[in-house]
Design goal:
- By secondary structure, this protein is of the alpha/beta class.
- It folds into three domains: 4-68; 76-84 and 349-448, Alpha-Beta Complex (Aspartate Aminotransferase, domain 1), CATH 3.90.1150; 92-341, Type I PLP-dependent aspartate aminotransferase-like (Major domain) (Aspartate Aminotransferase, domain 2, 3-Layer(aba) Sandwich), CATH 3.40.640.10.
- The protein has 18 helices and 17 strands.
- The strands form five sheets. It has a seven-stranded mixed sheet, sandwiched between helices.
- The protein is globular.
- The chain binds pyridoxal-5'-phosphate.
- Pyridoxal-5'-phosphate is lined by residues 144-146, 172-173, 176, 217-218, 220, 250, 252-253, 284, 295, 382.
Length: 458
């Protein structure tokens, strides 16, 4: 009497079967064969019959295809949220992409001074454009804004106190809590005021010999509404200067232009932060700036030079590809072409009426199951809370439910990401490139279209 386990094919047999199906790297094939066999054993253990070689090798092939697909992939963002950390934040401009290609294809003068013919500094490449775009005397780029804040606190406040309003000692995003960053930097947090109201006197009362800085944190991913008070930056600046302490402004979003020109609420700009008295202003490169992931610190030559010379600037330095993309992005602001060139501003600027025909065309692909509704595109968490623009969305209804449809769209190639509202699946054309319209329509049609012509999801 033979045990069903003995009829499970060997790893070698599955590998042989796979070889007939296609060609994959050996280590991938081996892992897939083993995983499929383990799964077969488990089902036998649970009382099912042993699957045959064909079933197991088909299973292995599915595992292999997943392994061989690049993990990081392009997706179509139809969620109606322009900036999402989960979706890689800001898409880059054409100019930034070309700059990356050029800087990566060949050698560069990354740390080489071409005038003097000697060793140079990578930090030199970003100073001028940061000066011209923010009005600050000097600037430095590091890995991200969390690193920028950590570094500023470590260098200027280690072992000393930093005063933060209770309304700003917050969690900004996954795993980024102001009190934790402060603690890791070696600075001591002194919280003042209350969650909704903090007055300049609260800061004044907390200042002592131990105070190294006052830290302001922009409420970039939430709003406190109603009965609220936050002291004006100018008042804080006067206070900080009277006590010879630093005023640090963690702006987060890093806006360089006037957002009200785009029909959304005013967002504090880097220039405003500096002109109202921040000694150092910190912000992200991939939020409202619309560039690559990095953290920017701007302020006086003396303070920036201190940061630049600190060993942490070596540990947190950005690479040549980021420098290339950042400079190409900043150049658009210098030239005043950000609205046309930088995808974030381009998408935000699109007129609502220009989006309606696209939403209509997508809805048509779903036949009776699609309609067009008025909705809002959001700028996104970590950038400008609550700020958004009117848009038109395609709303789809599936018999199997909105979650099923959202999941099916997510399995398209490239995946189409949507959101669910009131049991309808919504797609916002504002954040989708027109070159993806065809893909969106074919996918919708294949899933919902009454006269379904195509099968599968391209
Ligand atoms: C987003 C944000 C950060 C973190 O910036 P990263 O670039 O994601 O590291 C820090 N502070 C504020 C206020 C933010 O909005």
């Amino acid at each position: 009497m033979s045990s069903p386990f003995r009829t499970i094919p060997s790893v070698e047999a599955v590998l042989n079967a796979l070889r007939k199906k296609g060609s994959w790297p050996h280590s991938f094939a081996l892992e897939a064969a083993r995983t499929a066999i383990t799964k077969a054993r488990k089902s036998v253990k649970e009382g099912a019959g042993a699957p045959d070689l064909a079933t197991i090798s088909t299973e292995a092939e599915t595992i292999l295809n997943a392994l061989a697909t690049p993990s990081l992939r392009r997706v179509v963002n139809a969620t109606g949220v322009i900036l999402q950390t989960n979706l890689g934040r800001a898409p880059l401009s054409e100019r930034a992409m070309s700059a990356i290609a050029e800087a990566s294809r060949d050698y560069t003068n990354l740390e080489f001074d071409l005038n003097e013919g000697e060793r140079g500094s990578r930090h030199e490449h970003v100073r001028n454009l940061l000066r011209h775009t923010t009005g600050a005397p000097d600037g430095l780029a590091v890995n991200n804004n969390a690193a920028a804040l950590f570094m500023a606190l470590h260098v200027f406040a280690q072992g000393r106190e930093v005063i933060v309003s209770r309304g700003e000692a917050v969690e900004i995003g996954g795993g980024f809590r102001i009190p934790d960053v402060l603690q890791e930097s070696g600075a001591r947090l002194v919280e003042v005021g209350t969650t909704n109201r903090t007055y300049v006197e609260d800061y004044a009362n907390a200042i002592s010999e131990e105070t190294a800085a006052i830290l302001r944190v922009h409420r970039s991913n939430f709003q406190v509404t109603g009965f609220t008070t936050q002291p004006d930056m100018r008042e804080l600046s006067t206070l900080a200067r009277a006590h010879n302490t630093l005023l640090l402004d963690d702006l987060g979003s890093g806006c360089l232009v006037e957002t009200s020109e785009y029909g959304v609420e005013h967002e504090p700009t880097v220039r405003e932060s500096l002109s109202s008295g921040a000694h150092l202003t910190l912000f992200s490169g991939d939020k409202l700036l619309g560039g690559p992931q990095c953290g920017l610190i701007v302020g006086s030559v003396e303070l920036i030079e201190t940061l630049r010379k600190h060993p942490l600037s070596r540990a947190l330095r950005i690479d040549k590809l980021t420098i290339a993309a950042l400079n190409a992005t900043l150049m658009a602001y210098v030239e005043g072409t950000e609205r046309e060139e930088i995808p974030f501003w381009h998408m935000l600027a699109l007129e609502q009426k220009a989006l309606e025909p696209r939403a209509q065309a997508w809805a048509k692909a779903a036949g009776k199951r699609g309609r067009v509704i008025e909705s809002h595109t959001m700028i996104g968490g970590g950038a400008a809370p609550g700020a958004g623009r009117k848009t038109w969305c395609t709303a789809l209804q599936a018999d199997q439910g909105a979650e099923w449809l959202t999941g099916a769209l997510r399995k398209a190639a490239p995946p189409i990401l949507t959101r669910v509202e009131a049991n309808e699946t919504l797609l916002d054309p504002r954040t989708v490139a027109e070159s993806d319209d065809e893909h969106v329509m074919l996918t919708i049609e294949s899933l919902l279209g009454s006269s379904s012509r195509s099968s599968g999801t391209s």
